[in-house]
Every structure is written in C-alpha cells, then in structure tokens.
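queue> pop job 88
queue> type: inverse folding (structure -> sequence)
queue> payload:
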C-alpha cells in the first residue's frame, strides 16, 4: 500500500502568519516574502503587491522602532478549490509599542490575514492589522 503525503495547510497558514507578524514587529523587508502578487480588497478591488509594499514602508517610516510585540492567534480556516487553489485566513489579536524620538504609543487590536493558495504556496492577499490601513 502506497501512502500519499498530505500537506498540513493549517500549519502552513499559521507559520506564514507568524513570519509576517514577526517581520512586522522588526519592520523587516522580509515581510514581502509572505505577500501575494495581488491584493483583493472589498468591492472586488485588486491592488498590485508593489502598492502594498509602498504602504508598508510608509507605515514603518512613522516610527523608529516597534517594541514588545505580542500576538495571539485565535482562529484559522481554509477552503480548497479545484486546480490546487484555495482561500484561507488567520485571525487573532496583536499589540506593540511604536517608538518615535523617545515617545511611545501602544498600538493594538484584532488582526485578520487573508490568504490565497496558488502553486502550492499560501500568500497573503489582504491585511487587517493594527496600525495598517489602505
């Protein structure tokens, strides 16, 4: 009897979310590795990845650093479609202290990262995260 290897989609979604969140806290350029080529916003609006990267740089440029980042993942879910495609999300709460010239502000709230599965890889296609807006 031959076994077929199974892919743990839930673990992959959670791991991608963790990499994104940790990169966020570090204001790291590696955050872009988790992003899809296109973002799908409400109203079926589609935005190119480059626009999102520019927006992230703008958000990160508002603070010198983020300190004490914490998060809790509360839920994750996904649905697989034909042709190796799928949609999923990871949601929870996150908080961090944004420091600018020795002044700090706590930013916290719920987050939800939306993912699309293409070519065997889960990529973020929409971001709801404390401190980020379109």
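queue> result:
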């Amino acid at each position: 009897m031959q076994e077929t290897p199974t892919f743990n989609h839930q673990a992959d979604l959670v791991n991608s979310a963790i990499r994104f969140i940790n990169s966020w806290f570090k204001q790291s350029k590696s955050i872009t590795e988790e992003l899809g080529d296109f973002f799908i916003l409400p109203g079926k609006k589609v935005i190119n990845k480059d626009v999102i990267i520019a927006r992230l740089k703008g958000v990160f440029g508002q603070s010198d650093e983020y300190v004490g980042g914490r998060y809790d993942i509360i839920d994750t879910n996904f649905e697989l479609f034909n042709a190796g495609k799928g949609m999923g999300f990871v949601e929870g709460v996150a908080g961090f202290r944004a420091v600018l010239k020795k002044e700090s502000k706590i930013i916290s709230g719920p987050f939800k990262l939306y993912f699309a599965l293409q070519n065997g890889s889960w990529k973020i296609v929409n971001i709801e995260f404390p401190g980020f807006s379109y």
